[in-house]
Write a structure and sequence with these properties.
Strand content: 25-35%
Keywords: Disulfide bond, Laminin EGF-like domain, Signal
Protein name: Laminin N-terminal domain-containing protein
Signal peptide: 1-21
Mean pLDDT: 89
Low-confidence stretches: 14-20, 358-376
Bound molecules: 2-acetamido-2-deoxy-beta-D-glucopyranose, calcium ion
Domain Laminin N-terminal: 40-291
Structural class: alpha+beta
GO biological process, one term: animal organ morphogenesis
Order of helices and strands: HEEEEEEEEEEEHEEHHHEEEEEEEHH
Radius of gyration: 26 Å
Helix content: 10-25%
Distance between the termini: 73 Å
Largest sheet: 8 strands, mixed
Shape: elongated
Number of helices: 7
Length: 376
C-alpha cells in the first residue's frame, strides 16, 4: 500500500473511532464549589450495532425460495458447471432466508437462493422485506452480497412507518434509462443541495469487467462525506446540518427495508432459453450498521422479547424516547440537540409542579366545595 493511502486509511479509522465516541453519555456528575455534586445532562445516542441481528425477514412471493420442489442450478457463464442442487427438505442443500443474516466467520459461505428463471419470459420477481419494528439510523453503507452475480435490475425501498408506506431509496440497473427512464448517477455527483436525491446507479449492476464483484452498496458514508468531508474529518458540520434539517435526519432513518429484485444477472448478454437454470438470485449477506433512534435521549438500546427498545433518559419515555414521562410535561417534548458540539443539549422533560394539590388544600381550608378533579 502506498504511504499516502495508508495515511488516508489511518485518518479514516481515526475519524470513525472518534465519531463513535461522540454523544455517548447522557449525563455526568459534576462538582460545583457551593452546591456540591450535581448532574449535568447532554444529548446522547446509542452505539452503532450490526442491525442484521435484530430484524425479521419476509420473502415474497411465497415459493420464490428454491428447493420445493428440489431444483438443479448451474453457473452463470458456464452452463455445463452444474455444481449443486437446492432442496429445502435437506438442511445441507436448503437456502432459507436466514442465511442472509448469519455470521459467516471462516466457514463456508451460506446464502438464501431463489428459484431459477424457468418461467421466462415471465419476470423473476422477489421482495425481501426486513423489519425492525423500531426506528433505526444508518451509520455506514448497507452492503448486500450476491453470490451468483449482482442483479441486472433492482430497487431498494424503505419505510419510516413500520411498513404502512414505502418510498424508493435507490434504483440499481445495468441501464438506468432502459429500466427506469432515469439518468444514471453516482453519489459522488451529488452536492449539499442534492444530497438526498433518490438516484439510479449503474455502479453495481454491470457484468462485463465486473464478473467477480459481489457487493452492492447503499452509500451512507459518501452522503455523510458531502457535509463532513471525504475522510469524514468534519463530523461537526454534518451534525450541525442534522440539527436544523429533519429531512436530512429522516433520510438515514428507517423502520423497514425492502430489496425488490426485478431481473437477475444474465452475464452481460441476452437471456438464453437453453440455460434458464443459470439465472437466479443468491444473497449471502446483508450488512446494515446502524443505531437505535432514541431522539438523542438514550445511550443504550436493548433487545427484549424480540424488539429493540431505547433506555430513555432525560425523563422521556416511549420506544424512541419520543415523549415526556407522566408528570414531566412542564415543557413540550423536544429531541436532544447536537449543538453545541460535541456534548449537545439534552432538552430534558421537566417535572410538572404539583399545583393541583395546593389548590385542593386551599379549598379545604376555605371550606369551599372540594373539586374532586383536583384532589384525586
Ligand atoms: C413487492 O413490493 C412492491 C411494493 O413495495 C409491490 O408493488 C410488489 O407487488 C411486490 N412484489 C412481490 C413479488 O411481492
Ligand atoms: C413492536 O414494538 C412495540 C413497542 O415495543 C410492541 O408493543 C409491539 O408488540 C411490537 N410488535 C411486534 C410484532 O412485535
Ligand atoms: C428527571 O426527574 C428526576 C426525578 O424528579 C430527577 O432527579 C432528574 O434529575 C430528572 N432528569 C432530568 C434530565 O431532568
Ligand atoms: Ca450467510
Amino acid at each position: 500500500m502506498r504511504s499516502g493511502s495508508m495515511l488516508q486509511l489511518a485518518a479514516l479509522v481515526y475519524s470513525l473511532l472518534s465519531a463513535r465516541s461522540q454523544y455517548d453519555s447522557c449525563k455526568s456528575l459534576v462538582n460545583t464549589d457551593d452546591a456540591g455534586p450535581s448532574w449535568e445532562f447532554y444529548a446522547c445516542q446509542p452505539r452503532a450495532m450490526a442491525m442484521k441481528r435484530y430484524l425479521r425477514v419476509k420473502v415474497e412471493p411465497p415459493g420464490v425460495t428454491c428447493g420445493n420442489p428440489p431444483e438443479r442450478f448451474c453457473a452463470l457463464g458456464n452452463p455445463y458447471m452444474c455444481f449443486s442442487e437446492c432442496d429445502s427438505s435437506n438442511p445441507d442443500l436448503a437456502h432459507p432466508p436466514k442465511l442472509m443474516f448469519d455470521q459467516e466467520n471462516n466457514g463456508p459461505v451460506t446464502y438464501w437462493q431463489s428459484v431459477t428463471w424457468s418461467k421466462y419470459p415471465e419476470p423473476l420477481l422477489a421482495n425481501i422485506t426486513l423489519s425492525w419494528n423500531k426506528s433505526i439510523q444508518l451509520t455506514e453503507n448497507i452492503v448486500i452480497t450476491f453470490e451468483a452475480g449482482r442483479p441486472t435490475t433492482m430497487i431498494l425501498e424503505k419505510s419510516l412507518n413500520y411498513g404502512r408506506t414505502w418510498q424508493p431509496y435507490q434504483y440499481y440497473a445495468e441501464d438506468c434509462m432502459e429500466a427506469f427512464r432515469m439518468e444514471a448517477k453516482n453519489v459522488r455527483d451529488l452536492s449539499p443541495v442534492t444530497a438526498l436525491q433518490v438516484i439510479c446507479t449503474e455502479d453495481y449492476s454491470k457484468w462485463v469487467g465486473f464478473e467477480n464483484e459481489k457487493n452492492l452498496h447503499f452509500e451512507v458514508k459518501e452522503r455523510f462525506a458531502i457535509f463532513a468531508g471525504t475522510l469524514l474529518q468534519n463530523m461537526e458540520a454534518l451534525y450541525k446540518r442534522m440539527d436544523i434539517n429533519k429531512g436530512l435526519r429522516d433520510f438515514f432513518t428507517l423502520t423497514d427495508l425492502r430489496i425488490r429484485l426485478i431481473k437477475p444477472a444474465t452475464g452481460g448478454t441476452f437471456v438464453q432459453r437453453k440455460y434458464l437454470n443459470t439465472y437466479f438470485y443468491a444473497i449471502s449477506n446483508v450488512e446494515i450498521m446502524g443505531r437505535c433512534k432514541c431522539n438523542m435521549h438514550a445511550n443504550s438500546c436493548h433487545f427484549k422479547d424480540g424488539n429493540l427498545m431505547c433506555e430513555c433518559e432525560h425523563n422521556t419515555t416511549g420506544q424512541d424516547c419520543g415523549k415526556c414521562r407522566k408528570n414531566y410535561k412542564a415543557k413540550s417534548w423536544r429531541p436532544g440537540s447536537y449543538n453545541p458540539y460535541p456534548m449537545g443539549t439534552a432538552n430534558s422533560c421537566m417535572y410538572t409542579l404539583p399545583i393541583f394539590q395546593d389548590t385542593c388544600h386551599l379549598s379545604i381550608v376555605n371550606q369551599k366545595r372540594i373539586n374532586r378533579k383536583y384532589c384525586e
